[in-house]
Fold each of these.
Amino acid sequence: MEYKLTFKDYGNALTRGKLLGLKCKSCGKITVPPKMTCQECGGTDLDIVELSKHGKIVTFTVVNVAPEGRQNEVPYIIALVRLDEGPWIMGNLIDIEPARATMNLINKEVNIGSRIFPGDKFSPGDQARPVFSFA
Amino acid sequence: MRKVAIVGTGHTPFTFATEKTSVELFSEAAMDAINEATLKPKDIQALYLGNCLGDFSEGQAMLQSYAADDIGAFYIPATRFEGACASSSLAVRDAFIWVASGYYDAVLVGGVERAASMGTSLATRTFAMFTDSHYEYPSGLTFPGMFAMLAHLYSKKYGVPLEKLKEQMAQVSVQSHHYGVFNPKAQFQKEISVEKVLSGFMVTTPLQLLDCCPFSDGAAAVVLVSEEKAKEITDKPVYITGIGQASSGRLSAQKDYLPRLKAREVSAKQAYDLAGVSPSDIDICELHDCFSIASLIAAESLGFFEFGHAGEAWENGETRIGGKIPINISGGLKSKGHPIGATGASQVVEIYHQLRGECGERQVEGARTGLTDTLGGDGVICTLIMEKGW
């Protein structure tokens, strides 16, 4: 069975400003990032749909200890965002100084854009990563 | 299905960076386990070895084959288990199934890791490989970062103010260090205070240095045999009576269920059902406290406390010896150390000695039934239940 929406195609779209997901024809739920099957019901009949690029922060952390090769990025904020369409995605919150990040961030509305993570010697090349800014 | 007993154990000290190789560390634990079982390496029919990062820590993949050869268990089938921090628990579970099935009568199981030897930077990078490398690592996700996000989520979801939660989390680390003092194999054998935890370096908000387990080197091993063989070896066998294992998708895919990990609840139910016991029957538990918040999340999903209330249990001493359910009396990952490939086997070794009454100053008197809970990455979970066999 062919993969409907690959990592490469999803990433390319995100880089061009489109957030793509998969809508399940069985249960109607949205899966993003993409998978072979629906995240909710395991269904395999999926349509590629364009999502709203809008959601709310559900949790976050300010990272001060980076993995090898990423020390120049700290401090940075990772957040999980619940999209208007339901799924959660992970990305970086870029709209606030990390030192000012508090629990008040939770439930803040954000828009979703993207940046490129150039990868390291272990990574599969350039990777698009979602970034969040306040709506 | 046949009954399966643990009849021998070995456990190196868990330490900061060691000069011993992974094969050397594992062989030391393995020979101790085989000797304690009064067996010879030639009696071992198969090796199940947990190891995650030998490829990165010393350029050594396929460790299992060399480990079997090193101890003189020549030409036996040797299989490596990689399930992140749960690797050797997965190995014990599979070994159990093979002995229970009747295919083998005596097998060696264990794990080894040299995580401390990698240094913080490379260890942080390689541990992050136990997250989704395509969709979540690009955001800079680290392992503490994952549990840090769960801590904020826990605070919000259960309405425990962050400041209060931080104090409860600090109590987890304080308790682990208290019992680590009584474990000669522990990496840290010194008391710490809540104040010290709360004044530590901020690793990733809200987790401070002493909310986090250390990087560690070490190995642990056990010998599993059939009931029939166990009776030839010892009057005090410890039987594995419940096993569970489950896996899940990337962290974001677990969404609204978080901060609970559903895989843990699926795995624990399998183990409780197979053993025919419930959480209230467990006398001692070793659970996966890679971070202080992880202990609260685990203890709730294992059924020991109500969701959102495990922190109170630590504050009230319910998780200490004499409390409702003694947890991580070995010192846990926090104080005993966390050489990831060895951690599950180490937990099993602790329960084995507790059920046999061999833990000295940290002995939980009268313990008959014990449970181990091991988490790998954001979604591999293994649960094992052991019972006193006499």
Amino acid sequence: MIAVGRSAGSGILRYALRRIAVMLVLLVVVSLLIFGMVEILPGDVGNLILGQYATEANVELVRERLGLDRALSTRYLDWMGGFLTGDWGDSWRLGIPIAPLIATRLYNSMVLAGVAFAFIIPVSIVAGVVSALKKDRLTDRVINGVSVVSITIPEFVSSMFLILFFSLLLPWFPSSAMVPEGAGPLTTLRYLVLPIIAISPVLIGYIARTVRASMITELGADYTRTAILKGLGQRTVIRRHVLRNALLPAITVIANQIAWLVGGLVVIENVFNYPGIGQLLLQAALVQDVPLLEAIVLILAAILMLSNLAADLVYTLLNPRVRAQVAGGAT
Amino acid sequence: MARLRTLLRSPGLTLAVLVLLGWLVIAVLWPLIAPYGPTAQTLTSRYAPPSAEHWLGTDNLGRDVLSRILAGSRSVLIVGIAATTLGVAIGTTLGLCAAFYRGRVDELLMRSLDLLMAFPIVVIASVILAMLGPSQLNLIVVIALMLAPYNARVVRSAVLSWRDRDFIAAARMRGESGAYILFRELLPNIVGTINVEFTMRLALSIFAVATLSFLGFGIQPPTPDWGLMVAEGRPFYQIAPWVVVAPAAAIASLVVAVNVLAQRLRAS
Amino acid sequence: MSAAADVLRVERLTVEYRVGGGALSAVRDVTFSIDAGEAMGLVGESGSGKTTLGMAILRYLPDNGRITQGSITFDGTDLVPLGRRELSAIRGNRIAMVYQNPASALNPSMRAGEQIAEVYRAHLGLGREEARQRAEGMLDLVQLPDAHGAYDRYPHQFSGGQKQRIVIGMALAMDPSLLILDEPTTGLDVTVEAEIVELFADLRSRFDTAILFISHDIGLVATVCERVGVLYRGELVETGATQGVFERPTHPYTRGLLACRVPPGASKDSRRLEPLPAGSREPEVDACSFEPRCAFREPRCRQEHPALFASGNTQHSRCFFHETVAAAGPPAVTEVAGRTAAPADNTLLDVRGLRRVFRSGGREVIAVTDASFTLAPGRILGVVGESGSGKTTLARMIAGLEVPDAGTVRLADADVTRLAHKRSVEARRALQMVFQHPDGTLNPSHTIRQILRRQMRMLSPGDGADRDETLATLLEAVQLGPEHLDVRPRQLSGGQQQRVAIARAFSTSPGLVVLDEPTSALDVSVQAAILNLLIDLQQRENASYLLISHDLAVVRYLADDILVMHRGEIVEHGPAAEVFDAPRDPYTRKLLSAVTVHAGKVVRGGPERERDTAGGPIRA
């Protein structure tokens, strides 16, 4: 029996809770991995903080102060405990508390990412749908050609070209994205244009291709034929039948692309001097600032897993067959 | 051979193949072609724009950009090809095992790989390389490990699509061992997929190498490396743009060529 | 049949596909017409162009297909020059279509009722409520229980038969003048099929729709249609009243097609099947396309292209010698000198208490429950059942492709209740299998020689010396030649691939061969030849067969004993004649009565005919 009855609703709820529980377990596993990876690897903290000419004794002192002489498991529990209670420790390099630092940087990155997605998602969906509808004709070939090129060019390469053309030769946009204090939304946008254009092609390329492939499959499906043979107009067929089924998989792809976006941010923020979390990660990695590094990676991991989970749940809710399966108690 | 000929009929593909072959040749023969030593400094002509003596100009230390570009092709290609080969080897094996043995093995493997794939390559690689220290070998291993999951997925689904065919059942019925079925019955049918996969991962691999070098996790100066050259040239982009544009263009050409090849292979 | 009463008049229709560099004619110069309220069948095998014809009438061809000649006059208007908008107004409204595979014909993310309602909204401009009401009325009319609840359900919540009813509901929603059906019951269980045929009869008595029924199954067409046309390679080779064509075919192809059907009620012990000889040739402009396979051919057939000649009251035939064909009557039945089956007292295969349960997502599905039976050497045991009966799982457990959850399988007194690769070499040699789909049964990247040699090497390692000779003999036994040895499977036809699979199974002279739907994926004309081959091989090798099939006629013909399975249980077990003539189990009876839809006994319905139930005398 269909109908979103109470039993169906609670089935979905139970499914969601189960997935969240799994995600939390995975997060713990990931935290162990991160901790292990970073702590076990070589790198001398003492010299990092005190400089190359520090004496042995002082280096030892520093290690003791930072509690690095304790057992691994104690350190891990300490770290996790602190993390969960909001005390994320201090950055070795900068000496300031990590939590507020990450918070600000994360916020900045999310602004950039948000604006970028606001641009990317509509463009790529439209590109995918249009190229599917005009399959193998000129529009499709052009879009395809462009996306083949844009997917593979590393972000830093395209950034360099963008800066060359639109900042150096034609002084339209600033080459550094450090938005001045108190700037209005329009000015902010002007600063963000180049970074967003630099980071978009890869994502647009992937999403557009997936949407295109999905559209082509659904356009060739039997039920599409049925709809046409029922006498429905082409627009109606696409709108009511094809799009619904074709765009559903796009949700999952978009969620996957968030991971790409984060990776791209590391490069883009570096190139454009944008004070986001990607830049912070890079700086921390280059100097082996362990607590900062661990905190950033864990936060990113949590964000990525959350977004994948959210996409999964949205997909489940929107796909009637999967929803019924889930509500009925299937895994 | 006939397939090669039909493939070459398209101008885009021919161009891509030529570019790729060109870089491969340069990577091997650059000592014979480069006009100057890549680390030879001429401090009297720093930031020199492109001219007859220096076709692509010189950088901040007076080194000939053209020679550095030619020399830098080697590291990109070595790391790229090695990482891809290693990654595809690992990924294919994992994918074959997961698809063939199903059950717990499959579940475990796929979930771990899913976890790995959820993270951006650049992030994980940066962290690992930061701790391990940058070197060519580390780069190869890290990139290979990042590529393997994608490859494993593709191989796994290819095998799964063949696994339930009746000829596999017929093989079981005559008592073939698991290894025989995997390698003599299944593998020949997915060789094409693996080839395509290799090329696609190669494009990704070069992407990763260039990016990680740019960020500072790859080869260290003064060895010429395209990504590194872009990073080094950034501070003086306004004064001497050719120092950045040349390696950037080189990366773009190589990466696009490989990708065009990969797309064409996949389409056929 | 005056032209004025025609709902559909197709004249000289030719449809071509642009393939590679050239053009392929799928439909050539086809002319026929259908009266209001009349049901006409179109019979053809694969490659006959019947589906293309159906699609062409609705002007729904793929990008590379074109109507290059002819007219399609529907209710006075020629459909060929119409544009997209005009066609949209006609489709679903005055001409509707139902085709195969109802599961994929419905949009999985749209509610069932809505898919009917949108027809009303699109063509009548009705509002939501009104459209919903009428859609529910339609669901009722196609006999779906609880029409109101059904409206809100999604397609995956219905069974195959129910889905097809919904599709039929969508098609008849606007009371179209013409309904085109393309293999509407293929793929459905036979009991469901019978219900759908009943539904047709019922609906025909309410609606005055003309019907074009396209199918490969001439028996089914005969059950449903008053008139029939036979297509061969894109051409109409015979048309006429169904009864006439059935009883007095006037074209060699029709005659051959009718003859190679497995006659209901016949068994291998009394008569042989008459296969159509193989032999295909590209249709030529100035020759008869059937000539290479024709038993009546004369030199004229290779020099001139025959037109449609009047060959009877209502019949037309595309054969110069139709009178000879008509006079020849049905092909002489080759009587088999009263063959007796092997005695049933020895036991080759002993199955006890086999049980298999599948667990998926927390639910248990019992595939096979407590199956027990024995099979004597040299006897053929047929296992029949519909989907979900468990017959395939049973076969796979016996073959060693799955492990039973309980029970034992003994072969020649040795316990083989385990996976095939864990059995002894002798056991593997003694039990082989032939599978259903010819295109998946051979490894596409191996040659035939490699496939057969490997089989022999694994199972009879000792006789390496004369292997090449054995290969030649093997191929001969399945009517293939040495030229087939070094090719890859994709270069062979479906029938040829299946022959190789049979050769592979018999290469080591097994005592028991499990056959899982060995001819279901083949054309009728190929099927007869393969069945004859299977019988001959069985006789020669004195092998036992475990024959799994949903096709009761085939099983009746081949099997000495029969098992009927329903929902995992064996509900009937006995000698073939007994089970078919005097079934004891109610499910078996239901199955047997459903099968008659393929027998060509009339269940037509329709406005001017009297309805008749299957099996009764035919009234006109």
